[in-house]
Automatic annotation (TrEMBL):
Database matches in SUPFAM superfamilies: PLP-dependent transferases (SSF53383), Winged helix' DNA-binding domain (SSF46785)
Record's protein name: GntR family transcriptional regulator/MocR family aminotransferase
GO function term, MF aspect, one: DNA-binding transcription factor activity
Keywords: Aminotransferase, DNA-binding, Pyridoxal phosphate, Transcription, Transcription regulation, Transferase
Recorded family membership: In the C-terminal section; belongs to the class-I pyridoxal-phosphate-dependent aminotransferase family.
The organism's taxonomic lineage, starting at the top: Bacteria, Bacillati, Bacillota, Negativicutes, Veillonellales
One Pfam family it belongs to: GntR
Record flagged with keyword Transferase: yes
Keyword Plastid annotated: no
Species of the source: Negativicoccus succinicivorans
InterPro entries the UniProt entry points to: HTH_trans_reg/aminotransferase (IPR051446), PyrdxlP-dep_Trfase (IPR015424), PyrdxlP-dep_Trfase_major (IPR015421), Tscrpt_reg_HTH_GntR (IPR000524), WH-like_DNA-bd_sf (IPR036388), WH_DNA-bd_sf (IPR036390)
Superkingdom of the organism of origin: Bacteria
Domain HTH gntR-type: 7-75
Length: 458
């Protein structure tokens, strides 16, 4: 027996002997050959056989009593292996253009500035050899507290902030802090199924609210006590989607009157095309009834996994009391680099660049689709972010449209059916973040060709 390049000799021998025991080829109670005899038969060293026997003994497969030869464990339960079949190779689908993933345009990130920030972090090698702060690195928490106060009107000190690798991970922490006080989460109509699934998996009853902002002020919300309301007040696929200030004020009043809690997911807020984004809901109140979650994945490359959460005082104390139960999942190096990136003004420059770039691309895509589809499409021009909601006039299902586009190399997002969606329209949410401006005319042609394919199939 000889070693292969991939698997060491000792490991191959161990696996072969273990399989003989597990499949009953070597029955319970059988005495094994001595180390010397086994080594001679296999043409290997005694050390190799001793190593294999020692591992099998430590795992309970064989036993030696009073320095006698090893025997297969008498009480060992033998399991029969089913015949192994060669796994079928997975077919990876490749697309020419991806309108489903929320990536970033390669011209949208200040790579040179980020490399310099990261290089400064790596000068302190000792800092990077330790586990990070469970709550997040203080430098980043201080930078985010200052940035949030200036850009989002949030009210927080560095000690109020929890850093995480993504929104879902922060929600898991939050759910563990809320389980003793709340049982139901009300979700305003949202395209964040991971949030719904996370709270449901944590044991909360989840109820969806449809019908826009007006329903948030109707039963069951108005009359519900001790409920959690999950909202995305700054999400602006369309101008009409931004939550008006009056509704925000009434929601804060509801939370105080009913002892409720609001989770404000400030998704996409920084990418407002026209003027400053709407102030945060958390900053409108006294900070005791709103948990603010800020995701950074739309203003930084998605590969940099960073998000943060501002906790009210009572939940912060609960977190600190049980902080040893949590682990920090965000990279220390990336946290410190982002703190440096923010403090040197690059983060603000980055956001200004993205606002201009995405506003131009959103307009280009809107005009290209309107020219191509004509009256067969309705488009709500976006006011922020990287998503363009379009409504294709067709009797074909959304799934048929998605498959037709895939056949032509275009990846579309599989959105859920919209509340009160007309029978003759299908809403598609097109993510244009990583599509280059020069490719937009071609993307529009492909989508129109896919639409024509569905008409022929009907």
């Amino acid at each position: 027996m000889t070693a292969t390049k991939e698997v060491p000799l000792y490991l191959r021998l161990y696996r072969a002997m273990r399989e003989k025991i597990e499949t009953g080829v070597w029955p319970a109670g059988m005495r094994l050959r001595s180390v010397r005899a086994q080594a001679a038969e296999l043409g290997v060293s005694k050390f190799t056989v001793e190593r294999v026997y020692s591992r099998l003994a430590s795992e309970g497969y064989i036993v030696a009593k009073n320095r006698a030869r090893f025997t297969v464990m008498p009480q060992l339960t033998i399991r029969q292996h089913p015949a192994r079949t060669q796994p079928r190779a997975k077919t990876e689908v490749t697309y020419r253009y991806d309108l489903a993933q929320s990536g970033m345009d390669r011209d949208g990130f200040l790579f040179a500035a980020w490399r310099r920030s990261l290089a400064r972090v790596f000068r302190d090698e000792k800092r990077l050899l330790r586990y990070g702060d469970i709550q997040g690195e203080r430098e980043l928490r201080e930078a985010l507290a200052q940035y949030g106060a200036q850009a989002r009107d949030t009210r927080a000190y560095a000690d109020d902030i929890i850093i995480g690798s993504n929104t879902q991970q922060l929600l898991r922490i939050l759910a563990s802090l809320l389980q003793t006080d709340y049982g139901e989460v009300l979700f305003a109509e949202t395209e964040f199924p991971l949030g719904v699934d996370t709270m449901s998996d944590a044991g909360f009853t989840v109820r969806m609210l449809y019908g826009g902002h007006a329903e948030l002020l109707q039963p069951p919300l108005q009359n519900a006590r001790k409920r959690i309301l999950y909202v995305l007040p700054s999400l602006a696929y369309r101008a009409a989607d931004v939550m008006p200030a009056q509704i925000r004020a009434e929601l804060l009043s509801w939370s105080e009157r009913t002892d409720g809690l609001i989770i404000e997911d400030d998704f996409d807020s920084e990418l407002s095309y026209y003027g400053a984004p709407v102030a945060s809901l958390q900053g409108m109140g006294d900070g005791t009834r709103v948990v603010y979650i800020g995701a950074l994945s739309k203003v930084l490359p998605p590969s940099l996994r960073l998000a943060y959460m501002i906790l009210p005082p009572d939940l912060l104390q609960r977190f600190l009391a049980r902080r040893e139960l949590y682990r920090q999942t965000a990279s220390v190096a990336e946290q410190l680099a982002l703190a440096d990136f923010i403090e040197r003004g690059h983060f603000t420059r980055q956001i200004r660049r993205l606002r201009k770039l995405y506003a131009e691309k959103g307009e280009l895509l809107t005009n290209a689709l309107q020219r191509m589809f004509g009256d067969a499409i309705r488009i709500d021009a976006p006011t922020a972010g990287i998503y363009l909601p379009v409504y294709v006039k067709t009797a074909a299902s959304r799934a048929v449209l998605v498959r037709a586009a895939a056949r032509r190399g275009l990846h579309l997002r599989r959105v859920k059916p919209q509340h009160n969606e007309p029978d003759n329209e299908r809403m598609l949410l097109l993510s244009f973040g990583e599509i280059e401006s020069d490719d937009i005319p071609e993307v529009s042609k492909i989508l129109y060709a896919a639409y024509q394919d569905t008409l022929k199939e009907a």
